[in-house]
Amino acid sequence: MKITKICCIGAGYVGGPTMAIIAQKCPQIQVTVVDLNEERIAAWNDADVNNIPIYEPGLSEIVKEARGRNLFFSTAVDQAIDEAEMIFISVNTPTKTYGKGKGMAADLKYIELCARQIARVSKSNKIVVEKSTLPVRTAEAIKSILDNTGNGVKFQILSNPEFLAEGTAVQDLLHPDRILIGGDTTAEGQKAIQALVDVYANWVAVDKILTTNVWSSELSKLTANAFLAQRISSINAMSELCEKTGADVNEVARAIGMDSRIGPKFLKASVGFGGSCFQKDILNLVYIAKSYGLQEVADYWEQVIIMNDHQKRRFSDTIVKTLYNTVSDKKIAFLGWAFKKDTNDTRESAAIYVADDLINENAKIAVYDPKVSRKKVLADLDYLQTRTADENAKSILSFENPYEACSNAHAVAILTEWDEFVAYDWQKIYDAMQKPAFVFDGRNILDKAVLEKIGFVYQAIGS
Ligand code: UDX
Ligand code: ADP
């Protein structure tokens, strides 16, 4: 089966960049990205490509090249579903905030709504591709909805998990380590898999395209994220020990990273991992393990999250302790709010939790992030429901300019590893701060010797 039209439901961090690359690499395929959110679609269609809703290095250029040629953004969901032979589901699957599995299981209501919509609209056979991270055996639920509510139309369900990391999405999509496609072992299933393999084969070597059954593919995604997050929690656990013993976690990471069995990546100690995937996927894994009665397996993975929460709390505790046990009415400047550099995404960012802790101690937080607005910062805090929106607004001072954010502050905390922070005029920042001037480097990006020479009291994670 040759694919000529693709529809992607969900124009977010996964759907947007993924479809932009497919459109760029497959000019013969018409790619339509749809979303219920009119504002988001309008932003994707903005005449100035710099205003697209998602910031990723290199993305706006690709959108500029393909948009209007074979890449379209629209709110006409039904029409795009009807026309396409292949439909990607890239809607959000947040952790449930209610009912059974609250705080752990993935909320599949958006997925189910999509499946019902596809079933209602489709008049011809379709291949449905799960792109969002989904718990094992979700495909079964989608299949059952499609097969029982459709009008005789035949659906094939594939799982094609996304391994792109935000901030490097374009490079990850252009040069993936592997593409994973799970499908039915039946002849029709294999045909559907082949149709998707043919799409990727436009720019990915076929030996990098792995095909598996649906369940292996779904579980592989959760496993990959659980392993990566576990490494960060492991090195973060060591960072605390390093601080107590005089070892330096960066040196330890370098030493163990040169062991080829361990490798150098994902060993950067930090204030804690964030992002839309790690926490959610591990909680999901824990929930699945529990639901099969595997308590030890569940506890094992849950510890990765417990360690991560501890690391965030430890960072805010250190700030309070070091500032003579009180931050009440003190201005603390946050450099960075995004969960990592090169993205405007703030989901589960450590900054949110550290700020929340410090506001509980009556601190005033001045935030500067090159890609995050005050509105977003406040929305993130309001979402925690620790206090009223009014109270949050009073506690957050935000500035367009990092030097203003740091001016008169008692301490600067680095929450995101943006490159530009390293290049700042730290002497100028020092001169404008309250003394003693403290820097808490939650990302280990600044040079201790340089800052101490200026006069800062400098504390990094893990040394
Ligand atoms: C992750 C996976 O990497 C990706 O494959 C998956 O598809 C989605 O989830 P992402 O969340 O975008 O991607 O970012 P990632 O680079 O994995 O970073 C996650 C968090 O861990 C960030 O907060 C980052 O700052 C932190 N991190 C990462 C560390 O603290 N130390 C490290 O060594 C690496
Ligand atoms: P991700 O990081 O997984 O891409 P996002 O939250 O950035 O998650 O994007 C998911 C998008 O899916 C949102 O823009 C949301 O409006 C959209 N969405 C959710 N449900 C539907 C639906 N039934 N139809 C169309 N779009 C949907």
TrEMBL record:
It comes from the Bacteria. Pathway: Nucleotide-sugar biosynthesis; UDP-alpha-D-glucuronate biosynthesis; UDP-alpha-D-glucuronate from UDP-alpha-D-glucose: step 1/1. The keyword Oxidoreductase applies. Residues 333-448 form the UDP-glucose/GDP-mannose dehydrogenase C-terminal domain. Its EC number is 1.1.1.22. Gene3D superfamilies: Cytochrome c1, transmembrane anchor, C-terminal, NAD(P)-binding Rossmann-like Domain. Belongs to the UDP-glucose/GDP-mannose dehydrogenase family. PANTHER family: UDP-GLUCOSE 6-DEHYDROGENASE, UDP-GLUCOSE DEHYDROGENASE/UDP-MANNAC DEHYDROGENASE. This is UDP-glucose 6-dehydrogenase. It comes from Flavobacterium palustre.
